[in-house]
From TrEMBL:
Name assigned to this protein: NAD(P)H dehydrogenase (Quinone)
Domain of life: Bacteria
Species name: Amycolatopsis viridis
Family: Belongs to the NAD(P)H dehydrogenase (quinone) family.
Record keywords, A-Z: Oxidoreductase
Length: 255
């Protein structure tokens, strides 16, 4: 497989960096090819602005339309085009970051904002006019796995933990970014109590990551429902006969 490893941590001597290096070594041992987007090392610009699309700042910019036109005409900046080339090459993505304030670091959110422009990440239609998203799209066929470090203890970030459930915290990324664009999200690989790992804990974290990377090509994705699979009505609301009486995020998982 071709694997794009997107890494978002500012410290090269961090736990995250050590796990990244172990993960890349595992990919090589397994015979996979990889590329790395180390966003902090690249000094990645996370901010969408006029310069991304060559837009005249004296005129009102509609971001979706401007990004679509710049994408179609090949006028996107070189840094975005380079990430598009990596995406086209990759069969799978590993997206690695520390969980900060219940989400991604800003620099990583900015990667999604700038890279998944209209025409690539969204705004895709089939020949019959059907909008392709949530399971369908230009990136369908690729898979992605989150690797994240979490300061909290495992119990406190479970369904009844004070920090909330990890699946819910990652729903915007798994469902709203990966699945929306057609990428199949795999279950995440979290490392808990990240600031308190001892030598044995680190060894276990590395072993677990290597195990998960071994199954990267074959693991079953999170079973989200497809938008165009018949489970949603014309208003994109889940049919009343599916998961009746429930309104949690889990209703978007197939039974």
């Amino acid at each position: 497989m071709n694997v794009l490893w997107i890494f978002a941590h500012p410290e090269g001597r961090s736990l995250n960096a050590a796990l990244r290096d172990e993960g890349l070594a595992a990919l090589a041992e397994l015979g996979h090819s990889y590329q790395v987007s180390d966003l902090y090392a690249m000094k990645w610009n996370p901010v969408v602005d006029y310069d991304d699309f060559g837009h005249d700042p004296r005129e009102r910019m509609r971001v979706a339309a401007a990004s679509h036109e710049a994408y179609r005409s090949g006028r996107l900046p070189a840094d975005i085009q380079a990430e598009h080339e990596k995406l086209a090459w990759a069969d799978a993505l590993v997206v690695q970051f520390p969980l900060w304030w219940y989400g991604m670091p800003a620099i990583l959110k900015g990667w999604f904002d700038r890279v998944l422009v209209k025409g690539l990440g969204y705004g895709i239609k089939a020949a019959d006019g059907t909008v392709l998203r949530y399971g369908d799209g230009q990136l369908t066929g690729k898979r992605a796995m989150v690797v994240t470090t979490v300061g909290a203890r495992p119990a406190s970030i479970g369904p009844r933990g004070v920090n909330g459930d990890l699946d819910d915290l990652l729903f915007p990324l798994h469902h709203g970014a990966f699945w929306y664009t057609g990428i199949a999200p795999l279950p995440p690989y979290p490392v808990f109590s990240a600031d308190r790992l001892d030598e044995a804990g680190y060894a276990a974290a590395v072993a677990g990551l290597r195990d998960r990377l071994r199954t990267l090509p074959t693991a079953e994705p999170i079973p989200f429902r497809r938008q165009n699979g018949g489970d949603y009505d014309e208003n994109l609301v889940l049919r009343a006969d599916l998961a009746p009486g429930r309104s949690d995020l889990g209703v978007h998982l197939r039974d």
